[in-house]
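re: ur msg from earlier - yeah i can do the 6-O-phosphono-beta-D-tagatofuranose complex, just paste it... oh wait u already did. ok heres what im feeding in:
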Amino acid sequence: MDIAALKDKLNAPHVELSQLAAGYPVIDVNNTFASARIALHGAHVMSFQPHGQAPLLWCSKAAIFKESKPIRGGIPICWPWFGNHADIGKPAHGFARNQFWQLHSVEENAKHETEIVLALTDNEISRKLWPHVFKLIVTIVVGPVLTVRLETINTDDVELSITAALHSYIKIGDIENIEVLGFEQSHYQDKLMDDILFLQSGSVRFNSELDRIYLDTTADVIIKDDDNSREVRVAKAGSYSTVLWNPWIEKSATMNDFEENGYRNMVCVEAANTAERAVVIKPGETHTLETVISIA
Ligand code: TA6
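and the outut:
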């Protein structure tokens, strides 16, 4: 990892590049709107905090920073498959979050927001897991809101069928004091009940582990966070499913990178395209999946 070469790409004010560990670079942004940290590993947004607000993303204090291990928290990029693979030898949620991406550019746009662009193309590791050529571009815009845009470019000569998620860990005051709106009258697969379909009536509250894929929904999700006296909006584009997850006590205790009791301060609201409606991209075409996280 040529840190000097990476620093040469920083073409914006209010940004710094450092290393969380040897060969593990992160970009810190502290512009007029917000602060944020982005790891080149997984093109992973680790934190986002508008000035004057509590952080909007949760990241585990026990997160592990080493190659091939996804960061627990922030916004993991699940690609080119969401969830477990039929072949248990392949990593859950794909491989995009397990590799170092190339830093393409760090610029300030006309609105004085900081735009970070990273890229990942097929490589020896990826081709062993998924026999295709591709180019991924992630654009992260740090402004009054956080925008993460994932472009899948099919550089192969066959159709690509992908499932994916921008797996956002939203930081909250306490899981039992939030209410999630936006899923009313949507059907969801309950991952804890053999994917049985249910119809959502009203808002969602939490009192145990919850793992649901809401289908055929493009709606914004609003998290009413009473403890922080705020509402957080998770908007999306290019996504037909939204995943809602909290591991609760037992499940989070099985993950060594999940800080103790961390489940109380996070909820995942994920802009996704899941198996029920995979995205098929023709050769030469591009699909864009985007999420925008903000104070409602
Ligand atoms: O998005 C929810 C989910 O699919 C859960 O089932 C759980 O596995 C979570 O993702 C975290 O997965 P990870 O591989 O990051 O531990």
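cool cool. Residues 70, 83, 92-93, 167, 191, 211, 243, 245, 268, 270 surround 6-O-phosphono-beta-D-tagatofuranose (CB under 6 Å). ping me if u need the other ligands too
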